[in-house]
Amino acid sequence: METNLPGFNADEVRNGIRLAMRVGLPPVEADRPLFIWDTPPEVEADEDTSGIPFAWDAAPATPTAAPKPPRREECAIEYIDETGELRPFGPTASTRLVLTLLDEEYERVRGFSRVIIGGNEYVYERTAAPLGLNTIGIWQVHVRTDDEG
After folding, report:
1. Ramachandran assignment for 45, one of left (phi > 0), alpha (psi -120 to 50 degrees), beta (any other)
2. What are residue 11's phi and psi, to 5 degrees?
3. Domain definitions of the chain by residue range
4. What is the CA radius of gyration of the chain?
5. At 99, phi and psi to the nearest 5?
6. By C-alpha distance, which of 105, 113, 79 is closest to 94?
């Protein structure tokens, strides 16, 4: 059930949040979050979930569809240090990030596999339960470097 509080202007609130997100993003466009989708291979009954055949003489599966093209989206970036503490600015070797997206942006990146920020690649880890700001959904996505596992 969607309820709008009297006097709450979702468009104004979204614009204000997006402005704050833009202010916190890297100033160079190429360093901003680039979301990437990887197409998983088709899994056959005689393969494991990585697409590796159980029968050694069988050919490996191939992807059936092309991935979505990479895209940039505005989001807030929180850097997590090696002790698990959030930091207001990114340490030089941050291995984990929390990306906060509004619902409209989240829908455009839902299902991404990786994100590149400032030349550093992070893999999708999990999405927290959605938060709300009246009629606006807020999503926090956790990503990590591949070697952080």
Report:
1. alpha
2. -65, -45
3. 10-144
4. 19
5. -105, 125
6. 79
